[in-house]
Specification:
By secondary structure, the chain is an alpha/beta fold. It has two domains: 77 residues, Chemotaxis Receptor Methyltransferase Cher, domain 1 (Orthogonal Bundle), CATH 1.10.155.10; 158 residues, Vaccinia Virus protein VP39 (Rossmann fold, 3-Layer(aba) Sandwich), CATH 3.40.50.150. Helix content is 43%, strand content 20%. Strands 6-2-1-7-8-10-9 form a seven-stranded mixed β-sheet.
């Protein structure tokens, strides 16, 4: 398989995408991920997938689509999804969510756990991208419980994009990426390193051990959790689904949350269409009914 920069001619090669080919790719992406690519995403598809065509030494999108069909549910299909999915995240993105987690959710879970003796928290970062969200969740919980020992805390962090999952599990970030993290927190949970003059920060083991990274498709027919979850972060993901798929995903979230469990969604997302399942409790925070 030739590398992306294998030749000067491959770098200059441009590709056209017919209406029929775009529709085929839209259907494939929808079937595999639930993501509905609008017509305005056509240029994005051409731009991102052209990289794969060059890397594979292909001459047209027709050849690429044939390869996708031959690959079935794995292989190149995974690479295509990695290219198509959008990954935008930051540490402490939508900080009010982590304030609500620290000030409302965790005190409630702590009081209940101390009363019952069930000192366990299970939660999910659904669409974790490059890891900033689950690590911020871990920091928030580590800070809350640092003087409250004896608790078993695990975060499941999932994404469709295998490249992002590899980056997330590595837990290494450039200096500019960790700027939103307060300095005392950064010192406590990250190790500063310098390589070839570049400063970067590595997540310390005490956070790493709280998180399990896995590839998972939210369009799976069921979510096979053995233990119900205390809360779920699924932010800026549902906006890519059409109405029916969004409701289907929210119903599955509802099924795996504990009674009274919380669902955190993105700043432009709403669960008004599922108000029989969740009640609004704070800005883009909902509680299972």
């Amino acid at each position: 398989m030739p590398p992306e920069d294998a030749s000067h001619s491959s770098r200059l090669l441009s590709f056209s995408l017919s209406d029929e080919e775009f529709e085929t790719i839209r259907r494939l992406v929808k079937a595999q991920t639930g993501i509905s690519l609008g017509l305005h995403k056509r240029e994005l598809v051409v731009s991102r997938l052209s990289r794969r065509l060059r890397a594979l030494g292909l001459k047209s999108f027709a050849e690429y689509i044939q390869l996708l069909k031959e690959a079935g549910d794995s292989g190149e299909l995974v690479h295509m999804i990695n290219q198509i999915t959008t990954n935008k995240t930051d540490f402490y993105r939508e900080k009010h969510h982590f304030d609500f987690l620290s000030n409302t959710v965790l005190p409630k879970l702590y009081a209940e756990g101390e009363r019952t003796g069930n000192r366990r928290i299970r939660c999910w970062s659904a669409g974790c991208s490059s890891g900033e969200e689950p690590y911020t969740m871990a920091i928030t919980m580590a800070e809350f419980f640092k003087d409250r020992p004896g608790w078993d805390i695990k975060i499941l962090a999932t994404d469709l994009d295998t490249a992002m999952l590899r980056k997330a599990s590595k837990g290494e970030y450039p200096a500019e990426a960790v700027e939103p993290i307060p300095k005392p927190i950064l010192t406590r949970y990250f190790e500063k390193r310098v390589h070839d003059g570049e400063v970067f920060y590595v997540v310390k083991p005490q956070l790493r051990k709280m998180i399990v990274f896995r590839r998972f498709n939210l369009m799976a027919p069921r979510y096979p959790f053995k233990i119900q979850l205390d809360f779920i972060f699924c932010r800026n993901v549902l906006i890519y689904f059409d109405h029916d798929d969004k409701i289907a995903v929210v119903k599955k979230f509802h099924s795996v949350l504990k009674p009274g469990g919380y669902l955190f969604v993105g700043h432009s997302e709403s669960l008004m269409a599922a108000k029989d399942l969740f009640r609004y409790v704070a800005t883009t925070v909902y509680q299972k009914i």
